Write the C-alpha cells for this entry.
Amino acid sequence: EEVSNVHGVRSDFLKVGDAAPRRGLKKGFYFIGKALMAKGLPKLFELMDVLRNATSQTTFHVDAYGSGPDEKILQEMAVSKSLDVTFHRGIDHLELQDHKTMVNPSTSEVLCTTTAEALAMGKFVICPDHPSNAFFKQFPNCLMYNSTAQFRKQIRFAMNHDPMPMDKETRNKLTWEAATERFVQAAQVTDRIAALSWQDDYGASFHTWLGKGKKGNAVRRLAGAAPLLDAREEDVDVDDDVPPPPPPPQESKANSRSTKVQAQARDATDKKGRWWWGWR
C-alpha cells in the first residue's frame, strides 16, 4: 500500500507566491476554514489561551475567515477567553495575499488544501506534526509543532522572520503536473503485486463457476435470494460441476534459473552416457 498526495493547487496561487518576496507580507496571522468545531479553531483558542497565561506571555492577533453553522459558538468561545481574534465572512483564499502566516491546527482532513495554497502563496504555515500533514514537512516554510512549547517557538519564529522564497523544485511540487506524476507513480503495478494476480484470476473464475447453473441457484437460495433461472431454463455446461483448476503460481527468477541449470546438467549427463556406451 502506498500513500501519496495527488492534489495540486491552481496556478493563481503560485503566481501570488512568485510576487510575494517583492510585494512583502504586511499582515500577521490568520485562519481560514468553514466555521465548524471540527476544523481546529477550538484547539487554536486553547493554545492562544495557554501562551497568554504562561510565563512568556506570548500574545498575537488572529484574523479568522469562514462561515458556517458553528460560527456563533466559536465567536462566543473567543470572547469568553478574551482572545485577540477578529472574525470575518468566508472568502476566497486567493484574496488573502497580505498575511504572512496561516495557523492551521486542524487534523480532521486527510490532506488540507488550504495548507498547500498558503505555501504556494509564499506564506508560513504553522500546523501540527500529524500524518495528514506529512507531505508538507518537506517545505521550509511549513513550521510544525507537537507540543505547546513548540507551538510558541514557531509563533515567535514567524513573528521575527520572513518566509523563504520558493525555488523552482519546491514550487513544482505544488503544481497539478507534479500531482499527476505522483498519481501515475503510485498507481504502477509492482512485480510483487503482479505475482499475486494468478490468485485473483482463480478467485474470479471460482466465483463465476459457483454462480452457474443448478449450483448457482442453490447458492442463491442459501443466501436468501431468489433463483436466477427457472429449473427448466438452467444452462448446465458439461464441465459445470468441475471447478476451474488453479493456475500454477509464477516461478520466481531464482527458481527459473535453478530449473534451467538442472536441465542443462541432465543434458550433459545424457550426452556423456551416450558417448560412453558408443565407445564400448
Summary: Strands lie at 27-32, 62-65, 85-88, 99-103, 124-128, 142-145. The CA atoms of residues 13 and 121 lie 5 Å apart.
